[in-house]
């Protein structure tokens, strides 16, 4: 057996960074006073889609609920909430949302029948996600404040895979307990500083087991899918308990009431997503393209420094800046391996930790609203990246490029 790895796609990783920036911009828009109900709904929609793109379905669900609070019959939000419920195998919740969609005239009853069928089936994937949090805010004067809180996130992803005469089960647990605090202090009307720190204790474990459905077991070793499952089984169990402190410092300088310059430094963590953790092939019908997850991924750490200029007015939002980041345990979301097995070469896509990376680039975003019902957006981002110290030499290398997009939105008011 021979494994040959290929480099990850830097553009795909950069898109995730771009989405993080878009989230910050959309958050800055939603808090503006005087926004119309329809504009608030549009921004919540944009935030929901941003969170879906980075795999944060909890925040996406919150944004959909914010839309429902504004418009209880909003078809887009109800559909998104139903899809999230289906993805998490919450069939009863999905059914209730589907009944609302039928009531408001969006769907036929075919989907309701399908969900009733799924509820009756014995599904073999269970996902639990518990969040406990509390926040405290204490203002100092009119422009300074202290914020503190704690948050515990308890996740469990359990998947059973039936294949041939064998049953594989994967049990992944991730518990993160955090204490955090932020101090915003303004020395003058123009100059201020924001200091923050987040202390986290994380406990991660992954266990894969196998049992045969008959007493003789399964001796089929010529199947590539079975081989990949056995390969994941050989690495079990896996534990990764770690404690980290993530500090942040931001210097703020207000040029005028609508324009600001900000310099920041922060340490960040990027943890594996649920869809990348399941070790079993996503499909056992297609050998031309095999995709599997990796429950043994470690988190990715980054030290980020950036300098930004922002301008916010009623019609125009402008954000531009430069950044530099240094990453360790770099997560390769699209790690392509070529596995030669039984004289046949198979392409297997997965995820893995590479080495270290350095990145720098320029970011530009503009949002222009000439009229309340018309909005134009444009974004341009460049990157220059170097990856090194990887366990597999062909994961090292340089990459540079740019990513640009634009959109326009016209809101047509409802009549009647």
Largest sheet: 11 strands, antiparallel
Order of helices and strands: EHHHHHHEEEEHEEEEEEEEEE
**What would you call the structural class?**
alpha+beta
Q: Provide the helix percentage.
A: 10-25%
Strand order of the largest sheet: 2-3-4-5-6-7-9-10-13-14-15
Provide the residue-averaged pLDDT. Answer: 80
First-to-last CA distance: 68 Å
Shape: globular
Radius of gyration (Å): 24 Å
Q: How much of the sequence is in beta strands?
A: over 45%
Number of helices: 7
Strand runs, count:
15
Low-confidence stretches: 1-11, 117-123, 215-221
Describe this structure in words.
The protein is of the alpha+beta class and 416 residues long. Helices cover 24% and strands 50% of the residues. It contains 7 helices and 15 strands. The protein has helices at 10-30, 37-53, 57-70, 75-87, 91-103, 110-120, 224-234, and strands at 2-6, 125-140, 144-163, 166-186, 191-212, 238-256, 259-270, 290-291, 300-312, 316-328, 331-341, 344-353, 356-371, 374-388, 397-410. The strands form 2 sheets. An 11-stranded antiparallel sheet has the order 2-3-4-5-6-7-9-10-13-14-15. A 4-stranded mixed sheet has the order 1-11-12-8, with no helix packed on it. Strand 13 (356-371) and strand 14 form a beta hairpin. Helix 5 (91-103) packs antiparallel against helix 6 (110-120). The radius of gyration is 24 Å and the shape is globular. Residues 1-11, 117-123 and 215-221 have low confidence and may be disordered.
Short précis:
By secondary structure, the protein is α+β, with helices and mostly antiparallel strands. Helices cover 24% and strands 50% of the residues.
């Amino acid at each position: 057996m021979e494994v040959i790895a290929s480099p990850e796609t830097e553009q795909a990783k950069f898109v995730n960074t771009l989405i993080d920036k878009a989230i910050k911009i959309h958050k800055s828009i939603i808090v503006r006073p005087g926004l119309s109900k329809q504009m608030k709904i549009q921004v919540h929609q944009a935030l929901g889609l941003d969170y879906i793109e980075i795999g944060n379905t909890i925040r996406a669900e919150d944004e959909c609920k914010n839309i429902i609070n504004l418009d209880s019959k909003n078809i887009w939000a109800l559909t998104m909430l139903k899809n999230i419920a289906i993805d998490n195998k919450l069939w009863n919740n999905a059914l209730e949302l589907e009944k609302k969609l039928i009531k408001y005239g969006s769907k036929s009853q075919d989907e309701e029948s399908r969900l009733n069928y799924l509820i009756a089936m014995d599904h073999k994937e269970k996902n639990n996600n518990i969040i406990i949090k509390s926040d405290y805010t204490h203002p100092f004067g009119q422009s300074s404040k202290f914020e503190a809180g704690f948050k515990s996130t308890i996740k469990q992803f359990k998947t059973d895979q039936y294949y041939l005469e064998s049953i594989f089960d994967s049990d992944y647990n991730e518990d993160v307990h955090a204490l955090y605090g932020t101090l915003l202090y303004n020395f003058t009307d123009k100059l201020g500083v924001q200091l923050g720190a987040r202390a986290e204790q994380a406990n991660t474990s992954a266990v894969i087991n196998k049992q045969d459905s008959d007493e003789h077991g399964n001796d089929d070793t010529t199947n590539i899918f079975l081989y990949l499952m056995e390969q994941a089984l050989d690495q079990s169990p896996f534990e990764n308990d770690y404690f980290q402190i993530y500090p942040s410092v931001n210097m703020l300088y207000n040029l005028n009431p609508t324009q600001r310059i900000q310099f920041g430094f922060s340490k960040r963590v990027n943890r594996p997503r649920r869809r990348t953790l399941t070790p079993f092939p996503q499909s056992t019908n297609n050998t031309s393209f095999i995709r599997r997850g990796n429950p043994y991924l470690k988190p990715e750490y980054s030290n980020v420094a950036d300098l930004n200029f922002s301008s916010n007015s009623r019609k125009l939002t402008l954000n531009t800046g430069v950044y530099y980041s240094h990453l360790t345990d770099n997560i390769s979301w699209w790690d392509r391996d070529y596995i030669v097995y039984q004289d046949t070469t198979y392409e297997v896509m997965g995820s893995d930790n590479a080495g270290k990376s350095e990145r720098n680039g320029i970011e530009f975003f503009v949002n222009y609203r000439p009229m309340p019902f018309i909005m134009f957006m444009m974004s341009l981002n460049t990157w220059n990246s170097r990856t090194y110290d990887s366990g597999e030499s062909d994961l090292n290398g340089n990459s540079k490029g740019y990513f640009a997009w634009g959109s326009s939105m016209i809101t047509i008011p409802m009549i009647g």
